[in-house]
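subagent[fold] <- orchestrator: predict structure for attached chain, return tokens only, no commentary.
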Amino acid sequence: MLKDFVSNAALLIASFSIMGMLFKDKPLYPNSPLSSKLYWGICFGILGNVLMSFSIEVSPDIYADLRHLAIVIAAAFGGFIPAIISASLIAIGRFVLFGFSSTAFLPSIGALLTGITCGILSTLKVKRTVKAFIMNICGLIIVSIIFMIRIEDFTVLKNVLMMHYLISFIGGLFGYYFFVFVVDSNETQNQLKRSHIKLKETEERFRLITEYSSDMITVHNEQGEYVYISPAVKEVIQFEYPELLGKGMDIFIHPEDVERTNDMFQKALQESSAESTYRYRTKFGDYIWIESTLKSVPDQEDDEKKVIIVSRNITNRKLTEQKLQEANELLNRLSYMDGLTGIANRRYFDETLLKEWKKANNSHQPITLIMFDIDYFKKYNDTYGHLKGDACIQTIAQAVNNLFSLDQSNYTFCRYGGEEFAIILPSCDTKYGYTISLQVQDTVRSLQVPHASSEIADIITLSIGMASIYPAKQSIPDTLIKAADSALYQSKSRGRNTISIYEKPGRIPV
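subagent[fold] -> orchestrator:
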């Protein structure tokens, strides 16, 4: 009997192995396609018939076999359909192998009942191992009933059942776990195959991207050395692949950009990603602007990170940005420039005075404002014409502006409006303001610009008013403007060509 049992076990191993190889791409699960369940059901039916052919001798006239295990495993793994198919084939095989007789009828009915019972039990919401155990018990109960009908001797019946139960439990346990091994092995192979296919697809996509992308794609180790360069390298920086491989990227970067680029590289290693814009030296020695996106990824081969960098040439964009910036700066300068004289205009005067006023307030320093205009300028225009009048204003503005340009001071000289000008003197008191007023007066007088219509001289002269104030916390710059304008009015009232100082004192500095 032991020999027969070993033969049946060998049959199970061989059959499961062959079935696993035949249907490795059609795994058996409750949710498998109908075609897969059909194939597996037929195979388990054939297996059941083979097991009947190699029955185990229990006594001289009584034989047992493990055919019901084929139905149990089909139901446990595939559900109702493969269980019924295998049971039906086993029932038919009983008649084919042993002929149509009363002794063949009961086992056939038993096989069908086992298939129906196991098919119904396959819907239980329990673990597959528990489900298979319950199915095996039910199959044994059906077989036991058949033995009870056929064997009248109780002693013989008891021995047969004990032996059959022992063989079924051992064979069922062995067969179930071996089939689990077959199923898991096939699943592992299928997963490996899918992973291999996915890897090939990924590699193919990466190859297409790197070979046909206009962006340069490079891979670097943690030291920044090139370990891979895409073909676009020749188009972007004119180098060939071998000329960069194994070299550090920092030797090709503009010296002014090396530190910033290295910081971005370290950021990518630590924080996974970074972006950087820098100048890169091409093979011809010139520098181009490069914009790069950095992404660090783990490398399983050498347990260190690799940094993937996607770079593109943005030199044209940088040149456009630079031209745009220069144009904006020019527009900004023009917005603060007087169109006739080229010196600062009224807008610049207002903003500068407000800024210097706040600074003087914070530092408890005085601020002085000088305002002057050209004496009898309307008569000058009437006499010489407006073109000559414009030239006169330009000459005076240029001369006074040169006076401060040579001095390289932080004074602000502006055209306040018409023939009137203003000078802002930060951190200057009345005494120093008066000195500057005299210099302006002497500078214009030295120009000797003729003025035949003037009532006080035959050349251009100036009326000058000045005021010095220590700004108070709640005061506003208009206070200083009104004071200087008042002093200018005094100069005109006193006959022009003179300097007047606003005499009302400001607050005492802290």
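orchestrator: received. Logging for downstream: The first strand starts at residue 56 and ends at 59. Confidence is low (pLDDT under 50) at residues 505-510.
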